[in-house]
Amino acid sequence: MRMEFWRKTVDDIYSDNPPQQPVAIELWKVCTPAEAGPVPGPLTDFQSPSKDGKSQALPSLGLRRKSGWEAAVKRHNLTKRWLMKIIDEREKNLDDKPYRNIQELENYAENTQSSLLYLTLEILGVKDLHADHAASHIGKAQGIVTCLRATPYHGSRRRVFLPMEICMLHGVSQEDFLRQNQAKNVRDVIYDIASQAHLHLKHARSFHKSVPVKAFPAFLQTVALEDYLKKIQQVDFDIFHPSLQQKNTLLPLSLYVQSWRKRY
Question: pTM (2 decimals)?
Answer without folding.
Answer: 0.81
